[in-house]
Amino acid sequence: MSSPTDFLDAARALLGPRGFTDDPELIDPWLTDWRGRFSGRALGLASPATTTEVAALVRLCAEHGVPIVPQGGNSGMSGGATPDPSGTAIILSLRRMDMIREIDPLARQVTCEAGVVLQRLHEEAEKYRLRFPLTLGGKGSATIGGLISTNAGGTQVLRHGTMRAQVLGLEAVLADGSVLDSLTPLKKDNRGFDLKQLLIGSEGTLGIVTAANLRLLPEIGGRVVAWAGLPSISAARQLLLHFEKVAGDSLEGFEVLPAHCLASVLAHLPDARPPLAGQHAWHALIELVAPADGAEQLATNAETMLATALEQELLEDAVIASNEGQAEAFWQLRDAIAPAERAIGPAMQHDISVPVAKMARFVEEAAPDIEQKFPGTTAVGFGHLGDGNIHFHVLAPKGAVRGEWEASEGKVISAYVHDLVTQFGGSISAEHGIGQMKRDELGRLGDPVALALMRSIKQALDPNGLLNPGKLVPLAQEGASP
Amino acid sequence: MSSPTDFLDAARALLGPRGFTDDPELIDPWLTDWRGRFSGRALGLASPATTTEVAALVRLCAEHGVPIVPQGGNSGMSGGATPDPSGTAIILSLRRMDMIREIDPLARQVTCEAGVVLQRLHEEAEKYRLRFPLTLGGKGSATIGGLISTNAGGTQVLRHGTMRAQVLGLEAVLADGSVLDSLTPLKKDNRGFDLKQLLIGSEGTLGIVTAANLRLLPEIGGRVVAWAGLPSISAARQLLLHFEKVAGDSLEGFEVLPAHCLASVLAHLPDARPPLAGQHAWHALIELVAPADGAEQLATNAETMLATALEQELLEDAVIASNEGQAEAFWQLRDAIAPAERAIGPAMQHDISVPVAKMARFVEEAAPDIEQKFPGTTAVGFGHLGDGNIHFHVLAPKGAVRGEWEASEGKVISAYVHDLVTQFGGSISAEHGIGQMKRDELGRLGDPVALALMRSIKQALDPNGLLNPGKLVPLAQEGASP
């Protein structure tokens, strides 16, 4: 390996002053993930402007044995875009690659670069009376490249699938600097292994996504957002089955939360009001969408659907948002759960999934089990019932010290939650990915056959272990940088 | 390597007389693909009854260096399940593994083994008022394992996607005999690379699919099948855009055929009648489906949609099938094209795709170009316009000798067609796969970066090259059996 100075000179020469810096002040904001849980150091920050520049940089890194940490909006949940403390790696920011190369409104497709921010994509699509059917809390910072690399989820997965379902074509730079161009979308293409599927969700460990062709959908004609009070999460499951049956494709979101979460949010947001007058053990937030010209029909249908559910005793009470402002307010109650719970005190947050049919049972059994095993804790599960995806938070006992508790009892609790979810045939990472946060847990609990396969693939595609080392693949560091 | 006798004895001991045979009479029917285009020899025919037996057999083959050719219904289109002439490989038939392990009607999921025949799956789903949304001509023989391994398409891809979109979970035996079990369907699971995606469409070269969890949909309430006469394939594209807009999710199929195909079918099927009285250069077959209770509404809507299309001069004439019998008759006209064209004389048949927006232009330009370049030939394109998937047939000049023509001029024509489709950014295999038939063409025309990646993955997952050698991956044979 050559000296870092040689590499830095070469990188500067390659990318110019806008494209590469080793100025600590400029690098510093990108060394820590947005939640402040992971921090590292870096040799430099590369911000190439084109795919050609990314490819040349990757070749340069390969020559010099310099590891690469790809980074989009730096708003990931698992530390997947944060370098390790060694300071040997560079951060490769894709943020400068933010061109929307083409929108084809007839084919309903958009080709955009990795650095395009999700919210901007939404806005661009709207101009054509189209929509991109994936959204999430971090839409103001999350980039298309990051969303693809983590196979991001969000609140519309029930109907439209995760990021994987939106990607029609992909462009990526591989470990040797070659460019895989499968951007042209073909609805049917059976020329061998579907390589783009391998890159989606691989968190930058197999290649660096530089652009993608994404599907768009017609804009919606309107939506109905309803709030229902329920006696239990099992009842929520029954209500979901009811809506799947009667609402069909118009059912776009189905979120559940326990009374505890609603109370936390109401305490946290001074202007928030409870949607229903009475007390309910559980709540469901339901979103239905109508095609163009179908808004009135949907409003009528939605009332019938809720009335039938009430008759069948599938819910205790329900209300339909009377206007778009109220609909937004309902969603705000849902979106504010995480910050509201965080404000109460330290908590371990788990992004887990189980088969949809088992989700109610999991929450009903796991929550009291944990509260009993770890006295003083409060366990709450909320989230995407229709996807079997629970955000399962365990709040620390009163008086626990932030920072200390997470590293001691919190860690034990997380391992216990992961054990439970594995027993249920579930996943320790539903939508947030593995990154560095869950890598060791994946190594501990993952299927050994799947892990061996992942290691083989990682070794084959990145033999020198320079692509996002230490992330995602447990023990991948064994074969890392020579 | 040990002697074949050692292996045969061990295989017999492992699987018993029902599970393994080297009787040439019993093997013979499986040595040739159903269209009689590829033929080979085999050391034996294994028919394991369980995943455990498949795994043990694969381990045994690995020990003895015996290549394995997995086979389902032996109704593939590209020779992917036919052994080579060396006689060193065994055929591994999955047909005995035909259990439907579980149907979960609430979750709308079915877990079935690789040997389950597609038609049986349809029938099983119907018992629960559900349906499996993929069908194709060979449904009476095609197995789930084969459909997954080739990522099969069919006539419902427009709305429901290829086989890939139906697979929620997978069980497969890998080259070392280990079993990858990702059968449990999780709607969200971000624990690293999506390994099942790699196996889907890999034609048995990376692993042997033994079971799958598949999605089911609610049964339909009814369908409307319409036939339209059109001046051109460009007009068909406009009509498709119209239906995508006004029919939305109820549009389930949109097939196109030129006058030549219809004439061939009418000549071939004595009882068939033309759906329309007049002459039209092109025809479209349109299927719309209704949800439960929506049949009447759909029938009304369909009439309006066609009337609007007529007003807007998007079609010349149209008729709606007046009953299910007539609907079937319309579909029969479409399904009989391939046999009807074959009856005329020798033809080169190409299963290709281009971006949907370019399909009309491709057919309009390629057909006359080929007829001019190869005098006496007739070029016809028909198929799944909504998917950009054309079955592009070039019929031999009159008097051409079957068998001879295909191997001489026919071969040159195919290479020419593949060159053209590549220039259009398309695929030389839309839905039939690569197998042995198109392996060299994929090597010639495939993106070198993608090919290198495929070879790395093949080498990593099957280092001794024992899984379906000579299929799919160009030059994979370089690293084959030691």
At a glance:
Two copies of one chain form a homodimer. Chain A has 482 residues and is of the alpha+beta class. Chain A is 38% helix and 20% strand.
Descriptive notes:
Chains A, B: One of its GO terms (molecular function) is FAD binding. Chains A, B: Keywords: FAD, Flavoprotein. Chains A, B: Belongs to the FAD-binding oxidoreductase/transferase type 4 family. The structure is a homodimer of 482-residue chains. With 482 residues, the first copy, chain A, is of the alpha+beta class. Chain A folds into five domains: 90 residues, Uridine Diphospho-n-acetylenolpyruvylglucosamine Reductase, domain 2, CATH 3.30.43.10; 119 residues, Uridine Diphospho-n-acetylenolpyruvylglucosamine Reductase, domain 3 (2-Layer Sandwich), CATH 3.30.465; 116 residues, 2-Layer Sandwich (Alpha-Beta Plaits); 79 residues, Alpha-Beta Plaits, CATH 3.30.70.2740; 41 residues. Chain A has 17 helices and 18 strands. In chain A, the strands form four sheets. The first copy, chain A, has a seven-stranded antiparallel sheet with strand order 15-12-14-13-17-18-16, with helices on both faces. The longest helix of chain A has 20 residues. The first copy, chain A, is globular and about 75 Å long.
